[in-house]
Structure formats: structure tokens, C-alpha cells
Amino acid sequence: MHDINLKAMHHFEAVARLGSVTLAAHELAVSPSAVSQQLKTLETQFGVRLFRREKRRLVLTADGDRLFRTTTQAFGALRNARSAILRQRHMRSLTVRVTPSFGVRWLGPRIAAFSADNAEWAIRIDATPDFTNFDTEATDFDLRYGHGDWTGLSVTPIMGDIVLPLCSPDYLARLRDVSADPVEQLAHARLIDSVKSLYRWDIWLAGNGIAIGDLSYPFLFDRSSMSIEMAKQSGGIALDSANLCLGELERGELVPFAPVFGAVQYPAYWLVCPPRHHARRIVKRFAAWIGEACAAHEATVRALLMRRGCAFKQAEPPAVTLQGVTQPLVEPPD
After folding, report:
1. What is the pLDDT of residues 222-246, one digit of tens each?
2. Contact of 237 with 176, CB cutoff 8 Å
3. Per-residue confidence at 56, pLDDT binned at 50, 70, 90?
4. pLDDT, tens digit (0-9, with 9 covering 90-100), for 20-55
5. How many other β-carbons are positioned within 10 Å of the β-carbon of residue 79?
6. Residue 68: in which H helix or E strand, if any?
7. Looking at residue 104, what DSSP letter applies?
8. How is domain 158-328 classified at the architecture level of CATH?
9. What are the residue ranges spanned by the domains of the chain?
């Protein structure tokens, strides 16, 4: 069978819907003879009659009715697709790349508020640990975790990190049954390691003058969200970001393991893009919005931890030197 003649189908659909060759010709801006010729072509192709004439009006045959119902659905789907494409083409877009845990735990619950105030913008969020190559990828900016030293790019601080050992109340109660001394408790605890965090257990222990003979990790995760979830399920103690688990802290699902050790605070999250991208109004608007949202969030976290008896230590994330270039101690996390 030859391919279906779409032009003939278009004419057929109009005649079947309007019940008249003349009316269809007027709608299609062609002559009635042109419409009749397309109908004849279609009937010849299918080998059946599609219409019969009743009192000067065309009525669909059974075969014609079957074809009309299918044609109506098909043309309706095409018109809907065309409308969606045109709306998308005329809608302005913003593309953001974000680390997965920050995207899911912090940005995700808040992006609807920004979108509500910017309804004319289509917003795409790519949650990935991979940095954007701004020379080859169509991304407006990255929300990155790290030291903030990305050469050749505009780097705007948006939020610090607040890191401390966290665990569930049940797990803490079990440790306190072992000993009242937090250092002794650590020696018996399961330590959950966030392997891509700037502050890991070995650095934290050394900074607090604590030596554990056999420093081993029964659980290692490359996502803070997974470490936090494991701690919430009484799987051990996670050394992780209070900024990413404010909800769990507010609900009492997680508690500071030992407030006496305080919390480490350091610059961590940055809005990163080529300087030229700041010329876009939506980028300026997003940068202002997220800066305010992050400041309010940090203040809430600090106030909660202070109520829990935690002090704060300002710090710079540790770094190592590789071939003369300062690099983060680990890869930026999820």
C-alpha cells in the first residue's frame, strides 16, 4: 500500500466534520473541485466509498466513519504537539546544574517558590556531580560545592556548610549505655563516611585531638543524602551537613552526637558561571533569590544548633597540592 496522502486526509477530515464539500473548500481556502479531487484520490487509494449523499448532504459510510474517527484523533494530536512546540519556543528558559544531594534536599523543596514568581520562564534542573563545560554546554550556571577557586569563571558565594557528627536519638542512647564519655562512645560507634565531603572523619578526629586505633568505615556513601538517611535509620554516626538535614533536626529524627565538639563552618556552595551570563536578567534574579534563601536557611540552622548547645568553629576546607596546583582534598560531592 502506498503511503497515506496527508493532503487528501486533511481535505477528508474537513468534509467529514462539516458535512459539505463547499464548506470544507471555504475553510481550506481552495476550490470545491480541488476538495472533490482529493476525496476521489483517497477513495481510490483505500478502494472503498467514504461518503454517500443524503438530501444534498454528505454522510459518512461505515468505512468513512472509522477513518474519520482515527483521522480526528491523529490531527488533534498533531495540533496539540504543534501548540506545545510553539509555546516552548516562545517561552524563555533557564538551565541550572546542581549537585544531586543539594538539588534534592535543598533546592528541590524551594524551586517552586522561585518559579511561582517567574512563571514565564521554563526552568530545567540537571542534578549531576559533573561540572559544566560552559564552552560546549547550554547551561546558565552551576550551583557547585567546593573551594570556590574556579579560574576564569564568575564565582558567587551563596551558602556555607555546617558540619558535625549526627545520629538518631536511639543510636545515641545505645552509645550512652556503653559510656558517658563521647570519645569512648566514638571508639564503639559505626562511623558513616561521606566519601566526597571536604571534611571527613580522619580530618575531624585529628582536629579534635581524638585517636581511634582502628578507623574503619562499615558504611561509605558518595551522596550526603544516603549518609544522612543511614544515620536517621540508626545505622551509625554521620559526619555531614546540618544544612542538608534541617528537617530531620527539627523533627528530632537526628541529633548532634556530642554538642561539646561544636560544628565546623566554612564556605562551601557557590553560583558559578562565565561573567557574561550575569547579563541575563533571569540569572541576576535567581542569584538574588537564592542568596536570600540561603542566608535565611543558614540562620535557621545556626539558631537550632545553638539551642542544642553547639558552638561554631570557622574553618577553611583542607586542600592538598597536586603538581603545584591547589586542589580540593576530594572531588566535590554529589
Report:
1. 889 999 999 999 999 999 999 999 9
2. no
3. confident
4. 899 989 999 999 999 899 999 888 888 899 988 887
5. 10
6. helix 62-90
7. I
8. 3-Layer(aba) Sandwich (3.40)
9. 6-89, 158-328
